[in-house]
Specification:
6-stranded mixed β-sheet; 8-stranded mixed β-sheet; 864 residues; alpha+beta; 30 strands
Length: 864
């Protein structure tokens, strides 16, 4: 067996941990003592548990009246420690007693350090497999136990953990105290949490008997009021949805000043990146408020789905994260219906659609043999594709039936472990449908289908011919050009729950079907040929649709009345994906976009602008840019003239967000001088008075202000980072440094990434921004390669994968070769699939550009 594939033996089962930790924030070290109660199911002379970056200084095992001293050996490749005993410990209950010490690290995992406002802090981040860096443990999700934690800290510091403080006692040294926390319910090691430092909280509120607070570093508690409101709204709604009372006694939400992920669902003590929890309502954009509401709902949902009922092993991580992602949208949609949050959900599907169209994608449920493989599962396939599949199943079964199956699953496995098959079994039982069979098609095979919908009028009633095949971004996979037979992927089939919407005269109709064969002909419930038909109503299915030409033309002609905003986003996404994959041509797509000149929904305009930004960044030659800029102006100049720059008091959120998308198109893509100049003027107004500019507009103003910014403006951005009142303002100006195009300023931003000016959590995003900067990406790539040791040291593991993905913005065959060679010589752990997908996407981009250029050139010459 490979060390990396090692799993702990199943015959030593922990039931309770008692852990005493003494961190020293001056020396960034800690010591600890623990006892672990275990059940031994067969006699053992050695006990293996996880420990990484720890030194076990004493170890013994006690069973009944006998006590065995243990010799400790380490297996670094397995991240384990073995306790070797002089005699066999018999079957029954036993107690492990250990003392250990370690370092409070810098990698944002395990027990790690952070600094803010000149103060020192220690926080934990244990998912997926980093509890072992804080205390020796059985660090696999199936080994659930109760935890009693005590921590000794200096007077004046706050200590937070999963459960309430049971008591505080004087510490062993003058000026210290020991905080004893109540025992937790049964839970997995990755959910244990600890925070230490100067912290303050909002006023406590109580929701259905549960006390709820938001915690921050000093001076920021007032920025937690919106998150507190969102948490109260989510907690009550989720408790009602699951039909089980919130299980952890209290709920603390903590804004961590340096945090790798967006948030972490530790039981009873959820940790967040500051931008995901804190905002000033007077200056917060709608996007910032939506993000906070969604992330808060996501993490609170985990308290039931993931914490109370936990996956058996990491191959079912997808179910935890997919469910929480799906229900976050459901919860926020119920709380704030005017936000139209399901339209945002459709936008979120772009990332998994992109990844899952690659040959190098994976199934949602994929084998996980090691800690490194577990960490690589945190991606768009797990989260967004998984959520889209669950939404499709809910639509197929009906929301009430789906909820009853979820409730049955939670009740049956409370405080235990379960698999996705357990959930699908519960859904099958309450619905009477073959849910397992449908779900297996979507979670156990990679990719997704393309559904072709062709309306015919043969016979007395109209029909629609439905055909399916796997969708690939690579046209050669559809029709091989080398004479080879199609690969085995061509045989893939899905049971596809379809909802078709069409107009039968004045009647708006919906019709459902389950497509399980290669092709099927469906008789429409219509008296005449439909005026129009859309084959994925509400965008409830995770598949691409190719309508026949006449049907597509009818949809375009009836756009304002036929399709809702989510469906229009889906239609633009479908046509763009079909163009990139060779089913359609670039000139036809650009003609198609003209139908959206008068589009009024911001999300649809954003979808159009995203596609145009891709064309601008990756397909155009310098000679083509003036004509393309005129095309952009044709699409959006009238909209900006209508909207203006200053919203009126009665203006809707949708109108404000549409203005942002239009300014981005004209200022960032077309680089229209008057638009850029006005953006720079608006930015100066914002700096003078943060309430004088629409908050939704500020992010794009910061980017446009950097575009042709001087050294003086670069210094102004740095000063804004230093004095920012809110996390959003700090991050937007920090990342804005990556949008400056002056070569000297690009270099300054690169050098800054390796200094304390940039927090560990922000190094990866800043380098990714620089790698996407058209004027700075090659300098950024040279910098990353030349300074790789320093870059790698500053990047936490997840951010290293993000950096690899960002190199895809280089966009050339030469870059593809350099990336492959560099990361072959400098391999990044748990990034093999990320590298493979990045290289494949680059191959597709280069081929698409070569294929599209002649038609693009001809179209720009004639059409603009």
């Amino acid at each position: 067996m490979n060390d990396a594939d090692y799993r702990l033996p199943p015959y030593v089962l922990p039931t309770r941990y008692r852990i005493a930790l003494t961190p020293d924030l001056d020396t960034w070290t800690f010591t600890g003592e623990e006892t672990i109660d275990v059940q031994i199911t067969r006699p053992v002379r050695q006990i293996v548990l996880h420990a990484a970056d720890l030194e076990v200084t004493a170890a013994s095992v006690q069973a009944g009246r006998r006590r065995w001293p243990a010799r400790v050996s380490y297996q670094p490749g397995r991240e384990t420690a073995t306790l070797r005993l002089p005699d066999a410990v018999p079957v029954g209950n036993a107690r492990l007693q250990l003392a250990f010490r370690g370092v409070i690290g810098t990698s944002l995992r395990g027990l790690y350090r952070a600094e803010a406002g000149g103060r020192r802090y220690a926080f934990t981040q244990f998912e997926a497999t980093d509890a072992r860096r804080c205390f020796p443990c059985f660090d696999e999700p199936a080994f659930k136990a109760r935890f009693e934690l005590a921590v000794t800290v200096p007077e004046g510091l706050v200590a937070l953990s999963n459960s309430r403080v049971r008591q505080e006692t004087p510490g062993p040294a003058p000026g210290t105290r020991t905080v004893h926390f109540a025992p937790t319910p049964l839970m997995s090691t990755y959910l244990v949490a600890l925070a230490i430092g100067e912290l303050e909280s909002t006023t406590e509120v109580t929701v259905r008997g549960t006390p709820l607070r938001v915690w921050t570093v000093p001076g920021k508690a007032q920025l937690g009021e919106f998150a507190l409101e969102a948490a109260a709204a989510s907690l009550g709604r989720l408790e009602r949805y699951f039909g089980v009372k919130y299980p952890y006694g209290k709920l603390d939400l903590l804004a961590v000043p340096d945090f790798e992920a967006g948030a972490m669902e530790n039981s009873g003590a959820i940790f967040f990146r500051e931008t995901a929890l804190l905002c000033d309502l007077a200056t917060a954009s709608l996007a910032a408020k939506k993000r906070i509401a969604l992330v808060v709902a996501h993490e609170i949902a985990h308290q039931w789905f993931g914490n109370l009922v936990t996956m058996q092993w990491w191959d079912d991580l997808w179910l935890n994260e997919a469910f929480a992602t799906w229900i976050e949208f459901r919860t926020v949609a119920d709380w704030q219906p005017e936000w139209e949050i399901w339209v945002d959900f459709q936008q979120e599907k772009a990332a998994p659609f992109h990844t899952d169209a690659l040959v190098s994608t994976r199934a949602i449920r994929a084998p996980v043999r090691s800690a490194a493989q577990a960490s690589e599962m945190f991606d768009a396939i797990t989260y967004e594709k998984g959520a889209a599949v669950l939404r499709m199943l809910e639509t197929f079964l009906g929301p009430n039936v789906f909820r009853e199956g979820v409730r049955q699953y939670i009740r049956a496995h409370r405080e235990g472990n379960a698999t996705a098959n357990d959930l699908f079994g519960a859904l099958e039982q309450v619905s009477g449908r073959r849910v397992r069979a449908i779900a297996r098609d979507w979670i156990d095979q990679p990719g997704f289908p393309l559904v072709r919908a062709t309306v015919t009028t043969a016979g007395t009633r109209p029909h629609v011919l439905l055909e399916q095949q796997r969708f690939f971004a690579d046209p050669r996979r559809v029709a091989p050009t080398d004479g080879a037979a199609p690969g085995r992927e061509a045989a893939q089939r899905w049971r596809i729950p379809l909802v078709l919407r069409f107009a039968d005269g004045a009647r708006l109709m919906e019709q459902r079907a389950l497509l399980s064969r290669d092709r099927a002909e469906l008789v429409l419930d219509a008296r005449r040929p439909p005026k129009w038909l859309y084959a994925n109503a509400d965008e409830s299915g995770f598949f691409r649709v190719q309508h026949d030409a006449a049907t597509l033309d009818a949809l375009v002609r009836h756009l304002p009345t036929a399709l809702d905003a989510a469906e229009r986003v889906g239609l633009v996404g479908n046509q763009w994906a079909l163009t990139r994959a060779g089913y359609s041509e670039i000139d036809s797509f650009l003609d198609f976009l003209r139908a959206f000149r008068h589009e009024t929904h911001h999300a649809v305009v954003e979808a159009v602008v995203d596609a145009l930004a891709y064309i601008d960044t990756f397909l155009l030659t310098p000679q083509q840019r003036p004509a393309f800029a005129r095309y952009i102006e044709e699409l959006f100049s009238d909209q900006l003239a209508e909207l203006g720059w200053t919203p009126n008091a009665a203006e809707s959120d949708n109108t404000r967000l549409r203005r942002v998308a239009v300014v981005r198109a004209l200022g960032r893509i077309a680089r229209e001088p008057a638009v850029v100049a006005e953006a720079e003027r608006q930015l100066q107004i914002y700096w003078a008075d943060e309430t004088a500019v629409d908050p939704n507009l500020v992010d794009v103003l910061v980017v446009l202000g950097a575009q042709r910014g001087s050294a003086e403006r670069f210094e102004q951005y740095l000063e804004r980072v230093r004095v920012a009142r809110t996390p959003q303002d700090e991050v937007r100006h920090l990342l804005g440094l990556g949008a400056f195009e002056d070569p000297a300023l690009v270099q300054r931003a690169l050098e800054l990434s390796l200094t304390p000016t940039v927090r560990t959590q922000d190094v990866g995003p800043l380098l990714a921004r620089l790698l996407s900067n058209p004027a700075g990406k090659w300098a950024a790539w040279d910098f990353v390669r030349a300074r790789w040791s320093a870059v790698e040291e500053r990047l936490p593991p997840f951010m290293r994968r993000r950096l690899i993905a960002a190199t895809g913005s280089l966009g050339t065959a030469e870059a593809r070769q350099q990336i492959a060679e560099f990361f072959a010589a400098h391999p990044v752990e748990a990034a093999e699939r990320t590298l493979q997908q990045t290289l494949e996407a680059l191959d597709l981009l280069v081929a698409f550009r070569e294929r599209a250029q002649p038609r693009l050139d001809a179209w720009l010459a004639q059409a603009v």
